[in-house]
Amino acid sequence: MMQSPIAFVGGGNMARSLVGGLVARGRDAASIRVSEPVPELREALHRDFGVQVVDGNATAVDGAGTWVLAVKPQVLRGVCEALAPIAQQARPLVVSIAAGITATQLERWLGGGIAVVRCMPNTPALLGAGVTGLFANPRVDAAGREGAQALLSAAGGTVWIDDEALMDAVTAVSGSGPAYVFLLAEAMQAAALAEGLPADAARTLVLQTVLGAARMLTEGDADAAELRRRVTSPNGTTQAAIETFEAGGFRELVGKSIRAATVRGRELSAAND
What is the pLDDT of residues 108-160, one digit of tens each? Predict the structure, then answer.
């Protein structure tokens, strides 16, 4: 049976990860259309996945039951307003992965009465190892929620959020979160070098430690606090490091950082309204 077309408006990295995940899971490439103004990106999408590629948004969404808005937040209003006449006629399910843009804004820009799912994936989605927070406006029915979840599951896990006001916190925790881990790894490598370890050894030790710790968190049944307790022997080396972290206000700094990211998400929404 012919699958209903999915249109991607924008063909950047996140759209590419979703397209790749869908095709890998058996989605017919012929049912996926991507509009992308950069010729090199269009050619790469067609070459790598066999999907239809065009340079016009209206052409991409024509006849598509699901639209995935994957452009920068700063240009999203103009994109939506240009597509509003088509949206009013077609009444698609609109899935947005733009940070800081609310479902209410999207619905208004598209002319009103549109089913909108607002999503916040993160960059590990490029490896199929991401996580996405999703919020659905009241016009999204059960089939729409199921379709949106199937779409975003192509990039990793999914979490539904009932209160859209919490989506800025989702962005702060998971959307921005990989950068926090990268910063920690960067700092650990620099410290290892300062202790005299060779660069290649420092890199391997740090990256495999981060990978192994993540696997223990996700594949075991113990939470982060319990795992930390298990590895922290009394009066040992780990305890010395943990006490230094705590004395330096590590937890408070993490809390302040996530608060700053949450506030910035709200500011982005207001700036693009």
Answer: 999 999 999 999 999 898 888 999 999 999 999 999 999 999 999 988 999 99
In degrees and rounded to multiples of 5, residue 102 shows phi and psi of -80, 160
What CATH number does domain 6-166 carry, 3.40.50.720, 3.40.50.300, 3.40.640.10, 1.10.569.10?
3.40.50.720
- Tell me how far apart the alpha carbons of residues 213 and 24 are, in angstroms, rounded to a whole number: 28
pLDDT score, position 1: 39
**The CA-based dihedral angle spanning residues 132, 258, 266, 80, taken in that order and rounded to the nearest 10 degrees:** -30
Domain boundaries, the chain: 6-166, 177-269
CA distances from 165 to 71, 170, 199, 201, 262 (A): 22, 10, 44, 44, 10
Residue type, 191: A
The letter for the amino acid at 202 is: A
What fold characterizes domain 177-269? ProC C-terminal domain-like fold (1.10.3730)
- Tokens 């996700």 belong to 218
Q: In this predicted structure, what is the pLDDT of residue 65?
A: 96
Pick out the chain residues at pLDDT < 50. Answer: 1-2
